[in-house]
């Protein structure tokens, strides 16, 4: 039986794309080169040789240099036999050479096509143009010019899209206009007659002009890009920043992940991050931020109310293990099972009032002080499944794990 930590695989199909992230492959090469494995079984080596020839060469040479025995299964390539390994290496080198030469030729041809201003092949036709960027469609081209003119005059994306829809002007697919669709037209260099290659419109000789007829001038396109950047910066400066008092403390009980601050409209919440998880593992757990923050702060106040000890300054740092702690959903995630250790100072409690006046004094503390005290008193705030209706704040799903006592000694939390 092969231990799970010695099975190396990349399940996503995207790993076949050049430059893609391949953690399984990287770990495999590291294990071979560091002597962690005396032998290696390669599944379907013929497929590796055909589709990732350069990788096959790298693996075969690494195994040879580090004395790793090779075995294979799933096809006719026999890596256990010396002649089979030599033949596999020869085939891999041959395929890698052909692939490199083909890639170089294709890249040269693509660059030449771009420098000549020829259109990209395939795909849906661009609004304003027929297939292959020819011919220019007069009424659509006029709409493109109108979009640029109105945007540069100060109109919003939403206003432009709404007016085009009200007038019954369809998109290239016959659907309604959206702010995203207007945005894409404003961003696209093609409407200024510029050809994009590798994300840019400039060649060594200057701007890369296309062979098709432009809808607008280069100057108008450049002005639109400057206006886009200016509006984006202004929106960022004017957008109110949502603060989350419990950042780093709130943990999803199911996934053992830290829940992050999120906002929908004006509603703040802490939500379990799910973008990096496969569908069956996404729990989409969330909880209202204000109610949770009030609840946790009240727990802190109760500690202060019930203490007759005035926190004393301490010159010695103390440590606290910060969650999540426990069995993670993902077996390969170290931090999810072990949490992390933070250094804290008891000086954070200087001037914090205890006893009968603690409640009133707490509200007078600046937010940064309250944040620091909460991180001192509590190791983590775990959020379980909701058991009540949506409109009811369910305190039974909240488990607050203690961190340090008022004298700076650890009282729990892992």
Q: Care to describe what's here?
A:
This protein is an alpha+beta fold and 414 residues long. 39% of the residues lie in helices and 13% in strands. The chain has a three-stranded mixed β-sheet with strand order 5-11-12. The longest helix is centred in the first third of the chain and has 34 residues, at 82-115.
The low-confidence parts are 312-321, 328-339
**Distance between termini?**
33 Å
Helix content: 25-40%
- The helix/strand order is HEHHEHHHHEEHEEEEHEHEHHEE
The 3D shape can be described as flat
Radius of gyration, in Å, reads: 31 Å
Entry summary:
With 414 residues, the protein is an alpha+beta fold. The protein has helices at 23-33, 45-51, 53-65, 82-115, 138-152, 157-166, 179-187, 218-238, 289-305, 334-338, 358-364, 367-377; strands spanning 39-43, 69-73, 202-203, 206-207, 250-252, 260-264, 267-271, 286-288, 317-322, 340-345, 378-383, 398-402.
Task: Give the key terms.
414 residues, alpha+beta, Rossmann fold, Hect, E3 ligase catalytic domain fold, 3 domains, 3-stranded antiparallel sheet, 12 helices
Fold blueprint:
Elements: H1 23-33, E1 39-43, H2 45-51, H3 53-65, E2 69-73, H4 82-115, H5 138-152, H6 157-166, H7 179-187, E3 202-203, E4 206-207, H8 218-238, E5 250-252, E6 260-264, E7 267-271, E8 286-288, H9 289-305, E9 317-322, H10 334-338, E10 340-345, H11 358-364, H12 367-377, E11 378-383, E12 398-402
Parallel strand pairs: 1-2, 5-11
Antiparallel strand pairs: 3-4, 6-7, 7-8, 9-10, 11-12
Helix pairs in contact: 2-3, 2-4, 3-4, 6-7
